[in-house]
Amino acid sequence: MLQTNTHVRKTRRGGVIKVVKELYLRDDIRCGVSGCALCASASQLATATATRNSTHAAPHFLLPDTNVFLHQIDLLEHRAFSNVIVLQTVLDELRHRSDQIHQRVRDLCADHEKHFYVFSNEFMRDTFVKKVKDESPNDRNDRAIRTACAWYAKHIPAGVSVVLLTDDADNRRKAKADYGLFSFSVREYVEGMSAFPELVDMISSSNEDDADGFGKKFTYPEHLTATQISAGLKSGAFCQGSLQISYHNFLEGSIYTKIDGEDASVKLVGRLNLNRAVHGDIVAVKLLPQTSWLRHGDEVVVEADDETLDKVDPNTLLDASTAGPIPEPDDADMVTEEQEQTAAKSDLVRTGTVVGIIQRKWRPFCGTIEAPKGTTSGQQSVFFWPMDKRIPKIRIRTRQIAQLAHQRIMVAVDGWSKTSRHPSGHFVKALGAVGDRKTETDVILLEHDVRFMPFSKQVLSFLPEEGEAWVVREELLAGRMDFRGLDVCSIDPPGCTDIDDALHAKMLPNGNYEVGVHIADVSHFVKSGNAMDLEAATRGTTVYLVDRRIDMLPSLLGTNLCSLRSDVERLAFSCIWEMTPDAKVVDVKYSKSVIRSRASLTYDAAQARLDDPTLTDPVSMGIKMLNSIAKKLRAKRMANGALVLASPEVRFSLDNDAQDPVDEMKDTNALVEEFMLLANIYVAKKIYSVFPDSSMLRRHPKPSVKNFESLIRAAAEFGVEIDPSNNRTLSDSLDKAVLQDEPYFNKLIRIMTTRCMMQAVYFCSGTLAEEEFWHYGLATDIYTHFTSPIRRYADLVVHRLLAACIGYDKTYSSDLVDKLKSADLSDNLNFRHRNAQQASRSSVELFTNLFFKNKNIQEEGFVIRIMKNGFSVLIPRFGIEGIVHSKSVIAGAGDILIHDPASNTLSHPVTGAKISIFQKVVVRVAVEEAGHEAAQRSKLVVKLVEPQIPGLSVEAIGKVDVVPAEVEISGVGKVKTEGATNRVVAEVGVVKADMAIGRSKASAASSTPTKKKGRK
Q1: Calpha distance 1009→976 (Å, rounded)
Q2: In what helix (H) or strand (E) does residue 941 lie, and over which residues does it extend?
Q3: Per DSSP, what are the bridge partners of residue 282?
Q4: I want to staple 935 with a disulfide (CB 3.0 to 4.6 A). Which of 76, 264, 294, 367 is the partner?
């Protein structure tokens, strides 16, 4: 049967066109019910059996409408729900209303254990409904859902029913009156599921109370409609951007946008100006009058909770903070040289107010409930405190207060009424006890959106059928160079299992050298577009925590079949150079290959071969050749202005860790690094020459001189000049930044320089002008990532591009050369990379707090940051930092240090004692246990001991806890300290610019037993 649908739509240019769609309606679409005599096909719905649902105890299938999926997806994902019919009408609506929910429903349908079945009601003769005159699309879809439900009720065997689940009272009434259907609201149905009492708390409620349910009235400005927002954006009355809330104060945020064609930042301060916007939301903002703009103010550190902040003038809270480690700065804190030119035109900070929400970016949040005082029975309203300080507390209703107290839980936001001070949400699931190491680690992964669930059966189905017995077969060698006769070796940290690179060097008859970099050929195993590839693209990178590693690829590939282990044949992608003795490249070739590594060496083992002049075997001689060339390559890079930066890192050597942390940069470390950098640069040039519009490249923008102002001023006090005019002058000035009486000073300068940098990012070559490809830290015109495809998806993409460049892959996917898709992929990889970094840092912070628990440590530190009412101290021995608040230790006395913005110092008005950047101080370090009512973890608290400042300094500890050689951490086991000084295995690692800015595998994994070098 042929059916036509006709409608009109408006074009972008304002014209009106008529759209006619023809539908072929069928009679043979299957119901999916197991054992159905009328539909002889594979079933997806299990046999309906009697349930323990007191609302509807008879055997039944569930048919939810669109809004139930849209608002109650957390509920439907619970194990209590199965045998669910998903109509095509519903899926089509979800696709247009929420990509995220649509994908989650698709995932449920793909999970055969859940028994969710998609029924194509829009293509079946008996269930298709045509829109009638004056009927709204929503009413037509509701009628289609009722019609399909009625068809099922007649079609399925006797004794089995279909329940329509809808919160639309009119829909339920019509279903019962017109069709005789069983229909319930979500709450009616769930309250009958007494076997799962937690489900009631998971019900998303759109019913906003007139305040917070606690008697506190509040009214926000009304949000404008989508039409009003669109008109305002077109006229220039509004601007839009992604709201970035301060890490330290959820009542302060900013957007980065364009105003009059120029890049600009707009600050939003206070509840009313934020107007119910949450971190990450895309918002429309109206600029406030210039009289309301702020000056580039001093940073302020304030310990305040939500209620305290309500009583403070928000315009005085520029970057309010709680005590604790300061997050690594990101691009929200730094400006590029181009942005500086715009900002320099005015000393004022634009301020604005949110007039509407263009797109919500809500996600489930982890945290803890604030248990109310007293006890009452039944469901109660409580506040949920998110772990992410940028998120306001959320009001939920629960019957499980006793069970959820002292638990980490997950909550989803349902809405935010203009009459409610806080957003409302619902309970999703409990995660575990507060303070439990596993629970807190799971929370870290969830909060940073790291996919850490085991790989699905569908993903694993794309692994080689032979499993660990897989070998290189003869038919796989077609088109590959056979390098099995070369003396190839790998050099890695001890215990490394995911070996993704190997090297060789040999002398040529003409006196030149042949040098080869061989990278694991992951693209042979991970084909574009299959389930394994899609999962790897979503994960983006391997994530390294202190006690675990979240792999991008299944371990069979990462630690076995792709790993370039010694004495086994492995597939590789090779770059082969011919070089002169002075390291000048004469020629370069790229090819897929097969290799057989002669040795898998550690840095120490390779260094021993390098240092022993009596060793003349082929592998040792190859290492010596490589080292000689690497030193010349390094000298050239340094001469071009490549930067050597530093970052403080805490490393834990767990008792199950067979590795020794690398404390010094050996020649073999630098050797590997130089050739990985060389490969990345040459591959970047190659792929860009063939695919100028769609190459996956990596850039590092030049930072603004403004970022260095505080550092320049502080260094000048010690007679040290920092010149950030360009990377060459900066590199030279860093080399000269030495104080004879303070050996740590140069590392301190390099740490602070790192924090002035922008972050290196992936990008699609077709989206930027060629002059913007520059990698500032490495001083190279073009750069990419090619050398670590086992742990970075960007490298896998580059492998595919290079394979297409050299003609190995003649049938590559069109997505590979699609500029828009490549740009979107780059954005996702940058997002995943940042989240992986932040998760790693949070894991280190968690273990640091566990390490220092129940200890009182007194140590020397250096002031590295001055705020208006506090300062940050870096403690080199432990690689940690924290804020010392200038608030008096005497209750109610307030701040006792005066900030001088001209000199960027803090001073005592009576004694004249002064705090300045680079000043050496003595501090007391202890762990402050987090209260169960607040969601934050335990935190390090740093208090000043010396210099003695009345009312601020605390007395020196009479008995200082000595850090022993081995410490027992609850839930972790024994943790070793290292060295004669009993350090907490902390060292300032001197790392290359792309590694310090982009964070390498070494720096990200420096605290993990599975760390891998990252000098790439």
Answers
A1: 13
A2: strand 939-946
A3: 242, 359
A4: 367
Q: Are 87 and 119 in contact (CB under 8 A)?
A: yes
Q: Which of 353, 351, 245, 349 is nearest to 298 (CA)?
A: 349
Which residues have CB under 8 Å from 340's CB, separation 6+? 704, 705, 706
CA distances from residue 435 to 42, 172, 799, 938, 940 in whole angstroms, order as listed: 48, 46, 43, 8, 14
Q: How far apart are CA 58 and CA 78, in angstroms?
A: 21
State how far the Cα of 147 lies from the Cα of 140, in Å rounded to an integer.
10
pTM attached to this predicted model: 0.81
- What is the C-alpha separation between 939 and 842, in angstroms, rounded? 11
Give pLDDT tens digits for 354-380. 999 999 988 899 999 987 666 566 778
pLDDT tens for each residue of 451-461 = 999 999 999 99
Instruction: Order the strands of the 870-875 sheet from edge to edge.
Output: 880-885, 870-875, 857-867, 920-928, 939-946
Instruction: State whether residue 593 is helix, strand or coil.
Output: strand
The number of CA neighbours under 13 Å toward the Cβ of 70 is 17
Please tell me which residue, 376 or 169, carries the higher pLDDT value.
169
Task: Give which of 1011, 1009, 1007, 1002 is closest to 676, Cα–Cα.
Answer: 1002
- The CA dihedral of 932, 936, 937, 940, to the nearest 10 degrees, is -120
Give the span between the Cα atoms of 921 and 918, in whole angstroms: 9
Angle at 398 between CA 397 and CA 401, to 5 degrees: 130
Q: How far is Cα 706 from Cα 1006, in angstroms, rounded to an integer?
A: 31
How far apart are alpha carbons 72 and 854 in whole angstroms?
44
Q: Which residue has the tokens 């370090």?
A: 925
- The H or E element containing residue 925 is strand 920-928
8 Å CB contact between 380 and 397 = yes
Give the separation between CA 921 and CA 862, rounded to whole angstroms. 6
Burial of residue 732 (CB within 10 Å: 0-12, 13-18, 19+) is middle
In angstroms, rounded to a whole number, what is the distance separating the alpha carbons of residues 728 and 620?
35
Digit-coded pLDDT (tens) for 367-415: 999 876 665 667 788 899 998 888 999 999 888 888 888 899 999 999 9
Q: Which helix (H) or strand (E) holds 433?
A: strand 424-433
pLDDT in tens, 484-541: 999 999 999 888 889 999 999 999 999 999 999 999 999 999 999 999 999 999 999 9
Residue 966 is predicted with a pLDDT of 56
The pLDDT value recorded for residue 960 is: 57
Could you tell me if residue 519 is left (phi over 0), alpha (psi between -120 and 50 degrees) or otherwise beta?
A: beta
The rounded distance, in Å, linking the Cα atoms of 204 and 365 is: 15
Residue 526: Cβ within 10 Å count = 25
pLDDT tops 90 at residue 477: yes
The amino acid at residue 178 is: D
Question: With DSSP H G I counted as helix, E B as strand and the rest as coil, what are the percentages for the chain, rounded to 5?
Answer: 30, 25, 45
Q: Is-contact 334 756, C-beta < 8 A?
A: yes
Q: Which of 16-20, 922-926, 1010-1014 has the highest mean pLDDT?
A: 922-926
- Sort strands 182-184 and 161-165 into parallel, antiparallel or unpaired: parallel
SS3 assignment, position 295: strand
Q: Which of 24, 148, 29, 151 is nearest to 86 (CA)?
A: 148
Is residue 589 within 8 Å of 576, Cβ to Cβ? yes
Q: Is the pLDDT of residue 590 over 50?
A: yes
Place of tokens 């001197």: 990
Type of residue found at 414: D
- 3 state SS of 743: coil
Residue the block writes with tokens 């000199």: 903
Looking at the DSSP bridge assignments, the partners of residue 86 are: 118
Q: How far apart are CA 372 and CA 536, in angstroms?
A: 44
- In this model, does residue 304 exceed pLDDT 60? no
Rounded to whole angstroms, the Cα distance separating 72 from 380 reads: 20
Closest CA to 976 of 667, 537, 658: 658
